[in-house]
Write a structure and sequence with these properties.
3 helices; single chain; alpha+beta; 75 residues
Amino acid sequence: MVNYLPNLPQKGEALELLNSLGDNSTSLIFFDPQYEKVGTVLKLDYPLFYTTDYQILRILEQVERVLKPSAFCLL
C-alpha cells in the first residue's frame, strides 16, 4: 500500500487513497474520472482508464465520508 502524505497533491487509485483517510479529515478533493466517451472522441497520447458508474459511486461515498463540513469536492 502507498503511504500518502497530508497537505500535498496526490495521485493514485482513488479508493485506496480515500480509504487511507480518516472521517472528516479533508478540506478539498479534486475528482476527475475518466469516461470512455472522452477516449473515443479525443486522440490522446496517453491511456485513459475507464471508470464505471459503479466505481464513481463508491468513490463519491468515500468522498462524502472524508470531507470536512463545508469542504469542497471539485468534479
